[in-house]
UniProtKB/TrEMBL annotation:
Taxon lineage: Bacteria, Pseudomonadati, Pseudomonadota, Gammaproteobacteria, Enterobacterales
PANTHER family: INNER MEMBRANE PROTEIN YHAH-RELATED (PTHR34980:SF2), INNER MEMBRANE PROTEIN-RELATED-RELATED (PTHR34980)
Matching InterPro entries: DUF805
Superkingdom assignment: Bacteria
Transmembrane regions listed in the UniProt entry: 23-42, 48-67, 74-92
Name this protein carries in UniProt: DUF805 domain-containing protein
Amino acid sequence: MNWYIKAIKNYSTFSGRAKRREYWWFTLFNGLISLGVTLFALLFGDDWIISTIYSLFAFLPGLAVMVRRNHDTGYSGWWILCPIFNLILMFFKSDPEDNRFGPYPAETAE
C-alpha cells in the first residue's frame, strides 16, 4: 500500500524515475479499489458517479507513475502514447545506473 500512497502523493511529478515495484503495486491497488468502487456503485444503484469520481482522482497519478516508469528504463515519457510498446516497457528492468532522467531510485517507499 505504501507504493500506492507514494504514487498518489507524487501525482504531479512527471520527472524522475519509478521502479517496476512502484508501478505494479500502484496498478494492483488502483485496480482493486476501482473494482470495489464499481461493485459498490452497482450494489447501491449509484449510477456510476462514485466510480467516475475515483477514475478522475486516479488518472493523473497513474499517468505520472507511468511516465516515471518509462524514465526508469531510459525512455522518454512520450512513449505512453504507444500502448503496445509501453506495456512491454513496463516489464523491463530498471536502468541500474543514473540516466538522463535522474539517479537510480531508492529501494524503499517513503
